[in-house]
Specification:
4 strands; alpha+beta; 68 residues; 24% helix
Length: 68
Amino acid sequence: KKFGISNAKKILERKIWLGMSKEMAIESIGKPNDINKTTGEWGVHEQWVYSYDFYLYFENGKLTSWQD
């Protein structure tokens, strides 16, 4: 109910996708080990660092890319 049926299915399958919220990412793959945050006039950019050399990148709370 919280994220809708379609998103809930992806979260249960531990998937990530562009546009997902930070809350959805935590539900799907867990909390990051570290967060690097940059704030500017364009908004807030966050790099989430996971222990297995995996990174998520958020712009203003929405996932815009990832690196593995």
